[in-house]
Batch of 4 targets.
Target 1
Amino acid sequence: KDWNETINTLRGTLLDDGIYQRLKPSYDRLRNRDERSIFLDAACFFSGIDEKAARYTWEACGFSSRLSLKALLDKSLIKINHDGKLEMHHLLRETGRRIVEEEPGRGPEHRSRLWKQQEIMNVLEERT
């Protein structure tokens, strides 16, 4: 458990400001809300998940997943591996997660997405 926490902490520090400033414009240039949402979802939740399952989830949320996913693939922001699973370079994934962490608001309870177990537990405990 301690090793997992250490690894997760180190992963969060791998994205320095210079790299972030170079990668964030790729997100900023996405054409619409669907592309931006799918990029952030992939960064926070869907890396390593079956592409079809992710697409069904996005379609259920009202996103045009086929076109948006194609746009992200064309821009090399996401890949689908030989097993049909979504993949994202770790620096792009960290960029997406940092974008979410910098959303307006003072803490995790104000973010559009939560993926860290402890933050999820804290938010749920505060709201009950």
Target 2
Amino acid sequence: MAEHRPLGLLAVWLHVAPEHEDEFNAWYNTEHIQQITGIPGFINGRRYMALEGVPKYLALYELHDETITAGREFQHVMANPTPWSARMRGFYQDHRIRNTYRLIFTIGQAPATDAPYVYIVRMDIPAAMEQNFNDWYNQEHLPGLAAVPGCFRARRFLAVDSQPKYMAVYEIEHPGVITSAAWAKARDTAWTEKIRPHMQRRERRVYQLIRPAK
């Protein structure tokens, strides 16, 4: 059977108190991620840890498409947590962000093994600027950054029903990629300077892979 190209993404940010981290990670790695990736339409799942800031933990699940999380199977799992999952919900409570995304642009090649780091940028843009913003991102910004040594692949996503509306995911070799002179040169262009003042709710963070694709 042909392999599905993932056209959707589920991103889940979670944060728990330090005294609960050991059990939280045991639950995620031994029960939860297997349960979620077993749902039809889920292709794989990876876990990451923020190098700084909160929420500390991130899971990225590649989906056949963005409709999967609205489906009966996923909603059933969410509505009927296992005893261990119910206990974990008490640990993170409101410290969770769960967004579904649709892939809108990609450039570069996925590495043979999972990239050890991802750099994630989320932002909004006024509706009047969206066409220019997307032209800049797809024609100049993403191709330029994806060509920087140490960046394997760059993808853009559109949030299905959440904010910020846009998210870019860069798979990188090490955190120094985004502080390199080559990255700065590709980023700081005349077109970028015209777009940057219009960016809203911009969030940027580097995450380290802690559990490869399952």
Target 3
Amino acid sequence: MAPAPASESLPQSARRLSVAESFQWAEEVTRRSRSNFRWSFFTLDRQRRQAMEALYSFMRLTDDLGDDEGLSISERTEQLIAWRKMLDVALAGESQPHPLMPALVDTISRYKIPAKYLHDVITGVEMDLHPVQLKSWAELEKYAYHVAGAVGLCCIHIWGFQEDQAQARALACGRAMQYTNILRDVNSDLALGRVYLPEELLRQHRYSLDDLRQRAYTAPFVSAMREFAEVTRANYREAALLVSELEPPGRPILRVMLDTYQTLLERIEHAEFRVFEQRIRVPVWQKLWFVGRTFLPGGFRRT
């Protein structure tokens, strides 16, 4: 079987894939990605790892449908509508030609993931189809729910969770990671007409949207970014409480994700928020170290 690349819009299989073949397809999509999440999947047992690969592939393909520059906005909208319908029809039990659907349906059914969360993710991608300029922290939190929080809720169903508070803390985890991405991607998002830093935050620090569009690296900009980073850290503190509320098999993957993204935040802060001139990353060796140390006796955790 030759899997389609992750960027291909709504690829169709020449024949319906078996569940096992579909999981192989999702594994290949994940392998080709450069996501910070990919390495953390290796901390899971085979069944949960395959489920995470199916879930990740759904998220990746949904993003790609929204970002396909070869299509007009109206065409991307139609693709996302078709993607929603394909998901619903597959969940209703009807076989679909998309190679991901058998694995995705198996994952949703096995781990009792509410389909609403996947639809909410599609809504988040639809929110990015047009220029974005968030006015308030409330608008940012709503956006972060759709593109990250809903993903976190899907994940904890795969990992297993024990406490009622787990869902609220999964949302905090999604916010923390999404806010970190926003800090890192200020420059590239501007190029796409997207401003996720709340206008009320910028205004409070006497930094205008025009300043931002001109990539003005000034004291007010750094001050605004510092406050944004502090809010991000508060969400990480709440997210850290989620670890003990997961079933044991799901704890290492969350530790790796938190370590990776908190390290990214630290590197952004260490660079004094010079995000206009570089895209700050966590080195692969460090991501691998975070994964590897979970296998050491007793493991390691961030304090």
Target 4
Amino acid sequence: MTTFKQDGAARRGAGIPATGTAIRAAAGALALAMATAALWPAVGAAETPAQAASAASAAAARAPAVLTTPAILSAKSRAAVMLAAARAGERLVAVGERGIVLLSDDNGASWRQAGTPVQASLAAVQFVDAKTGWAAGHLGVVLRTDDGGQTWRKQLDGLQAADAMARAAATPQAQAEAAQLQADGPDKPFLDLYFADRDTGYILGAYNLLFRTTDGGKTWQPWNAHVNNPKNLHLYGMRAAGGALYLVGEQGSLFRSADNGASFEPLASPYKGSYFGLVAGRGGELVIYGLRGTAYWSGDQGRNWQKVETGLEQSITAGAALADGTLALLSQGGDVLLSRDQGRTFARLPDSPSLPAASLAQAADGALIVAGLRGIKRLAPTTK
């Protein structure tokens, strides 16, 4: 049986909070000011060259510096606040504050910084193969890479979204809302993303914010109207399991799509607090997790739920399915929980790191990579 042990001391950054009381806020919920249910037109849709040039010029004039200034390259970036991590083939890619992206080609033993075109914080990252991936985060930023994270290009930001809404406004109320959004600036954070393949993917966030692409991010269609979420509750996580798509969010919001994302209908939720994410087992089992150590398991596509005893009081911020079928959960205090029965029960890893944590990934050699407010921690695999 594979277990894990800490591999060296955690990298620490100056000025980092000593506790993880607001991990989820640090991971994306900074600037939740986009409260609108209006339908946005597709961003990136066909325009004449003159229209495109005019829009680009206007957006550049209003863009905050962090949207137009590349991330600063610094040796100190290895100790930055890192909010998400993912595998890209044999490589590890971590993203975090100020547009920082770190790469590791030795299973997390060492890291180097890659350049990005923005200084906006990045809260989510996913790869669909060794080369193709996306990162999303604050100010409505979406980045894409086609070389395993070495270089990135911006596909979307909050200014483009606000301008698209303004172009679509057809009533005085909609026009007023669009004008306010433009005046507020790009304050619409994306909190998570999910791609099924190189073409089809979703980005999601505050106030039911949801976009869909079917061309790898060249264009984005507003998708919030496809979610039966009349209160516009924040969306925190999306994953696929057993042929369906699932969304989770604040106040116990839980949705399922059985038609490839065409519609998302609410499921009866066993909990009224916020869910921060979900992880799927090999047989389509689901574990949803969130505030105050809460987790629930379902083996029937969310029709029924069983409470999972985690033994935690701190919120659970991340989950991952490991290569051997083990499911892992991560608390904001750095507790790692492992399940070898597809999520029905979990046990705490004795050598869990003690650091405010935001994300969990697995390296090619089986090691666990924990990213958080004090940098990145590697838990080396051992066999017992």
